[in-house]
Design a protein that fits this description.
Lambda Exonuclease, Chain A, alpha+beta, 3-stranded antiparallel beta sheet, 5-stranded mixed beta sheet, single chain
Length: about 270
């Protein structure tokens, strides 16, 4: 377990491997305490699979925030070619490159995904407000602290941290305000912002007032939404994650993590109208 502190150079893999509680753990617990136990405590839990969406999102963050690391860790896979279309010389070069990719330790991105990432970066650079929010900040530092009420270790990893603004960079299918509002509730962006603020306050004594999400659509023309999460949402997120930590501490003590409740269920309003 990593000790309390700020770690500027901690790898993404080391951050996620540490058992301190993150936003995703809080969201899982709020959905179902049993799912939290199954995914974070159960010693026989299966290894989490890395999805294509997770690879793409991680690659985007690395491209925007850590370009040297992106060039070091990622490589694009060229589109498939046929001998009859390109000739012997070019086809042999293509084959050798594909053989290199098979043994390379780099993360291989499909060519279309690679081009999409580059286009998304260009869209960000062409958006003056979004690009300005990214520049001149601290990127991907990891914060670990002991919660003062539950005694549990907690962690957060702000994408972009200015002296007075926290910025989180998101990829999405739809960056419109209505969809972001729903996604913010579903995925706990407001909880994430509250946890980052708490981590910074605990470890530096600084209160950061503003939390912003920059959302970039993954498909052309890569529209961008910039959303300031309001104080009421952040305060609600703070209350939720602090209470969840106390509940997790209680459940660990009793070694009892409830699944879904037993209750009477009626029809939803839309079904009754049919």
């Amino acid at each position: 377990m990593i000790n309390p502190g700020i770690y500027p150079d901690l790898s993404n893999e080391a951050y996620h491997f540490d058992p301190a509680i993150s936003r995703s753990g809080i969201i899982t617990y709020l959905d179902s305490p049993y799912k939290y136990w199954a995914n974070y405590i159960n010693p026989n839990r299966p290894v989490k699979k890395t999805t294509d969406a997770m690879i793409f999102g991680s690659a985007f963050h690395t491209l925007i925030l850590e370009l040297p690391k992106f060039l070091e860790c990622y490589v694009d896979k060229p589109p498939r070619v046929l001998l009859k279309d390109v000739g012997r010389e070019k086809y042999e070069k293509y084959k050798k490159y594909c053989e290199y990719l098979e043994v390379s330790e780099k993360i291989v991105l499909e060519f279309d995904d690679y081009i999409n990432l580059v286009n998304m970066k260009e869209a960000l650079m062409d958006h003056p407000q979004a690009w300005d929010l990214i520049q001149g900040a601290t990127y991907e530092s990891s914060y670990f602290w002991e919660d003062e009420h539950s005694g549990l270790m907690v962690k957060s990893r702000p994408d972009i941290l200015h002296s007075n603004i926290i910025v989180d960079l998101k990829t999405c299918n739809d960056a419109s305000p209505k969809t972001f509002q729903n996604d913010m509730a579903k995925y706990g962006n407001y909880i994430q912002g509250a946890m980052v603020r708490e981590g910074v306050r605990q470890l530096t004594g600084v209160d950061i007032p503003t939390v912003i999400n920059i959302c970039v659509e993954k498909t052309y023309p890569h529209a961008i939404g910039i959303y300031i999460i309001d104080e009421c949402a952040l305060e609600h997120g703070h209350q939720q994650f602090k209470q969840a930590l106390l509940d997790i501490k209680r459940d660990i003590g009793y070694n009892k993590f409830e699944s879904y409740p037993i209750e009477t269920i009626n029809l939803p309003a839309w079904a009754i109208k049919q």
